[in-house]
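During the reporting period the student researcher (J.K.) took over the structure-prediction task from the postdoctoral fellow and processed the backlog of single-chain submissions. One of the processed entries is reproduced below for the supervisory committee.
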Amino acid sequence: MRVIVTDDYETLSRVGADLVVDVVNAKPDSNLLVATGNTPMGMYRELGERRQRGELDASRLRVFQLDEYLGLGPDDHRSLYGWTVRSFVEPLGVPVASLVRLRGDASDPAAACLAYEEAVNAAGGIDLAILGLGPNGHLGFNEPPAAPDSATRIVELSEESIESNGRYWGARDQVPRRALTAGMSVILGARRTLLVVSGAHKQDVLRRTIDGPVTADVPASYLHLSPDVTIIADTAAWGDGATSDISTDDSSTIHGYVLGVDGGTTKTVALVALPDGTIVGAGRAGGGNIYSQQPQVAFANVERAVLAALAPVGARPADLATATYSMSGADWPEDFDFIHDELFGRGLGRRIVVVNDAVGGLRAGSPDGSGVAVICGTGAAVAARAHDGQVWHTSFWQEPGGAEELGAKMLRAVYRAELAIEPPTGLRERALDFFGITEVEDLLHMFTTRMGTPPKNVGALARVLLDEADRGDPTARRIAEDHGAALGDYAVAAARRVGIEREKYPLVLAGGVFRHACCILVDSLVERVRATASDTWAVHSRYEPVVGALLLALEEAGVEIDEPLLTRLALTLPDNELFVT
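J.K. obtained the following structure tokens:
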């Protein structure tokens, strides 16, 4: 969904006309679903003037009437059919025979609705739906509550619609109480949609349309389900939410804030930026992994991080043009759908993209987003992306491989050394010191007793283990080497999955474990990968994984990632404390 805010109604009309002309020029025999009402009239006049100047040929269009009052025939001057002919069909030179009626005067209105839908289907569907926004969020006469799959049908008009249309009839008591309307299924099936909104009285309903949640109580909110939607509003309709970051001219450029979120097992970090890459807000909250806690707790954490990131600029979720959520726990297809729908329902972005957290980490470290990334933080994940865009991530294919697993391996080595199954190790004293006890049996009891809760900071032992490996402890070195090799195996497998295992590609390393000064684990990992791809080079990510999510969001918004943008981003990154686990 794209939102364009213009300075005034005249500019709105010109920008809307530009979009219609683009559609007609690309496909002269397009099928258009056309609304009446005050707001699109200026756009229709602009289109008529362009036709008069020879800049538009609409003669091959097929036009579908959006709605009609029940009982009115085509010759009634109050009919919406007549309004469509006078305001759109005739000024644009569309043959009247190419206008498909909604027959409000039919003896069998239900059969007329069915015939209308058959005509839409026979024509191949709607190429462009031109819509206005009703005072209660209706589209056409799809009054709330309206289902997204509702068919073309007879409807009872709401009191808001009767009141709004009273001006066209001289008095509200003259307005018909029933009408025919193209169903939401017809509207949402359009390949492109243009919604034009003007006037301060539309501020509230426009915000509910854009912010979500998607609900039958605001039928226009269902436009978030449409494939290609442009909303053009003047500043009166946009209200106080209009800022210099929202388009205020006759350009069709996508504007607004851009959001990147890294939702990990331990923490969620959010960054908000301008389209030029300048970071203007940051937020942090608890973990966002739907597998490691109750999903609603995870989503609440994500929402807190996003709102905290928006707060410094006084922005709202509705101001987020594009949001990419790089999420630990986005593993299976149903996870992506679940996360997307929940975040969208909370209104956390006008356009939302969800990727696995390893994919965000890869984008943070790779110059163009291709290659292989190994993320080793609290948990571990691996992702690969080929130049053709093919992506694969390890998800549940991979056994645990993060800091918590390193800590668990350290504890197992201490237990085995205590039983003389393995040689003595300096890890014993380091583990006892860490937990403030003197005996290994007490350590084992601490983690296995049913009388209490075992410690939750096992992942912090990864730093202890790597310290000892760096000092030369044989057991610690073996664990670090084996762990690196295992991660390398998954990196090779990921490269193989996208067809780059024999190519030269960047091996991006990200996460807290790789920030440790000890090189043993990293060297083992890289050696395992280079056994297959000798020209591979390791890259310690220049940025935190959340920056990868932000770059993906910028790319999704059509922004070119160049060096000036990266410089602005780097200069405005928040302090490192935001990222430390």
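The committee noted the following: The chain is about 40% helix and 20% strand.
J.K. will present the remaining backlog at the next meeting.
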